[in-house]
Amino acid sequence: MEVKSGEGTVVVADRNRYSDECCNNRGWGSGWGAVGGALVGGGFGAAAVSVWDKINDTKADIQKVESTVQEAKAGIYKDISDAARGVTSEVAGVSRQVEGVGKEVLNNRFATERGLCDLGYKTNSDIRDSRDQMGAGFNRVMDRLCQMEHQQSNCCCEIKSLVRESENRLALQAERNHCEVMKGQQEIKCLIENTAKDQEIARLNRVVDAQRDQNIINSVVQALGNKTA
Questions:
Q1: Backbone angles phi, psi at 23, to 5 degrees
Q2: Distance in angstroms (rounded) separating the CA atoms of residues 145 and 151
Q3: How many Cβ atoms from other residues are within 10 Å of residue 100's Cβ?
Q4: Residue 13 maps to a domain
Q5: SS3 call for 10
Q6: What is the distance of C-alpha 17 from the center of its chain?
Q7: What is the largest CA-CA distance in the chain?
Q8: Quick check: is 51 in a domain?
Q9: Does 45 fall in a domain?
Q10: Is 30:55 a contact under the CB 8 Å cutoff?
Q11: Which of 33, 44, 54 has its CA nearest to residue 9?
Q12: Are 16 and 33 in contact (CB under 8 A)?
């Protein structure tokens, strides 16, 4: 509030206004006015009013700045809201794409499962067929082995029979050869004996002849000696 005197106007603080508006930064001008009035006194009232005007101008500037800040905040909030709506739209689009990909994945999984089932059925069928074929082939192999075993048994019997016949023939031939060898040895022995006899007789004959010749020579020598005497 203002109090006029003979020397000028003095600004006095309004306590009620200060207490009601200081928290909202609107009553601080009155408080500063009271302080200014108390400092300058009555003689400086005009100067206090000038200061008060400057303070009010500053307050107006501050309010303009606050208004500008509020407008900037509103613009920022709008930009954020628009960006959020854009992001939400993009997220929704991505979600739809993900949903489509998920459906495609599920379809592919179902197709893969059906393919695996079909492959499993075919594999089992092929295994059964192969097992049957292997069983039939094994039976044929066993039959062939039995036939070969029977043939081998018959062949073995035939070989044994041939071996026995060969052994008998060889034994008979060996016996014949032995007899012939023994006979030949006997003939050789007889031949040797006969040859030895003939040689001995011839030797004895030669001895007899030599003795006879010596006797003749001795007789002749003796006869000649007697005549000489």
A1: -70, -25
A2: 10
A3: 10
A4: yes
A5: strand
A6: 88
A7: 244
A8: yes
A9: yes
A10: no
A11: 44
A12: no
Tell me the pLDDT of the chain (229 aa) as tens digits: 444 444 444 444 444 444 444 444 444 444 445 445 544 444 455 655 677 777 877 888 888 888 888 887 887 878 777 777 776 777 677 667 767 777 777 777 777 777 777 777 777 777 788 777 877 777 887 888 788 777 777 777 777 787 788 788 888 888 888 888 888 888 888 888 888 888 888 888 888 888 888 888 888 778 777 766 5
How many structural domains does the chain have? 1
In one-letter notation, the amino acid at residue 126 is D
Task: Answer yes or no: is 228 within a domain.
Answer: no
Say which residues have a Cβ less than 8 Å from residue 56's Cβ, sequence separation at least 6.
Answer: 29
Tokens for 160?
A: 């044994």
Containing structural domain, residue 28: 2-85
Q: Can you tell me the distance from the alpha carbon of 75 to that of 82, in angstroms, rounded to the nearest whole number?
A: 10
Give the type of residue at 200.
Answer: E
What's the length of the chain?
229
Q: Among 18, 17, 1, which Cα is nearest to 9's?
A: 1
